[in-house]
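Work package 3, deliverable 3.1, input record:
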Amino acid sequence: MKRPIFALIDCNNFFVSCERIFRPDLEDKPVAVLSSNDGCVVARSNEVKALGIPMAAPAFKYREIFDRHSIVKFSANLELYGNMSRRITELLTTITPRIEVYSVDESFLDLSQLDIRDYTAWGDAVRESILRWTGLPVSIGIAPSKTLAKLASDRGKKQLSLGGVLSLVDNPQLDQHLSEVPVDNVWGIGWRLNPKLRAEGLNSALHLAQLRPQRAQQLMGIRGRQLVAELNGVCCFGLDLEHQKPKSIMRSRTFGEDTNQVGVVEAALASFATTAAFRLRRSNQLARRAGIFIDTNKHKSGFRRWSRETIYQVPTADTGQLISDVVALFSEVYNPRMSYHRAGVWLGDFMPADYLQTDLLGVVSPAAHDHSQARMLAVDTLNERFGKRTVHYAAEDLAQTWQPRHHIRSPRYTTNVAELPQVKIVP
DNA sequence: TCTGGGGTCCTAGGACCC
DNA sequence: TCTGGGGTCCTAGGACCC
């Protein structure tokens, strides 16, 4: 059996890079992308990072720095980023079908079946080809475990001399690299474990790698023990090819403005249920549980959250049913004296959609289930063909004021005909 | 005035059973 | 007063990720 070799392909400053493709004038300028409601900074160009603005920083706290340095801000344009992400995935799939799309801007490839002599040269070529075909700069890390590949891509990105590519396969400088990585930069070490490890005198990835397995488990649980093995080149986390099938689905938003209006919250919940149910059907699954939560502002005193859930004897992916159920759940907790700030709908406890027909026909009314399936198929087909929300449930239209603000979103250049980039030809 | 939105996995402890 | 031991399932919460 061949030993495992993984590559991590990681897009640099992904959201910012997507914006720059269509705005080449911003190439060396400080650029930041903001979350829903333009609340937090979710992507930063190198220039913005250098100004000391941290990830997830609340935008209003840094307004002065934004103004003083003329940082260019964008509201998140997730439709554009999703489309660019798919283009990269398509390219990578032509290299090998053994791909795990880990997040919108990262994919792992399993290289063990490929005949590659020089991993660094291979990485350079892939990097070059992604840049040429999509315009997006990436970093590539190659190693015998995913944890090391992750660490390698991060080194490749930050050490300019590496040109965006680092292979740690049989690399004599492995220990040197590990010793230069702070322990909290290791994949899996977060804010809670960091101080605990530092207190033990474990400050670098190399210190962590040298930990005895039993001690690692004592300090960090079973995942920590595996993490230490991974740092030593022993693969514990394989490629997750089932990654595409979600185990739970959540849709939530902070409202554009706080509200105590029952209709506004109902419209929001109906809208969340609609997109969550669509995602569920696309993954060909049915949910046995659905729930809602609703919050006041967590940054104000007296913060409260209410949640309710419902369990289905007969699993469902029916938008109409889910809407009426989440609205009913909300009526159990609604209080007109509250100022609601954020709400969400989640679906969980899934089963395969085909399973129901063969297995549960004794419990389910087959006709009702078939009608639901047919109805949803019709809705999804129409919306795919004629555009989102061509057909939708009226409950969504009760109000719009809950919708988040995104005043400074760029055009959806690649997915919306009305917003295509325009070219001026100067004679 | 103004602080995102989605996920996964692990563990501890309670309920329940024999 | 004293009041087993172990297994399984479920849930809530912790911790981490992007």
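Chain A has a mean pLDDT of 93.
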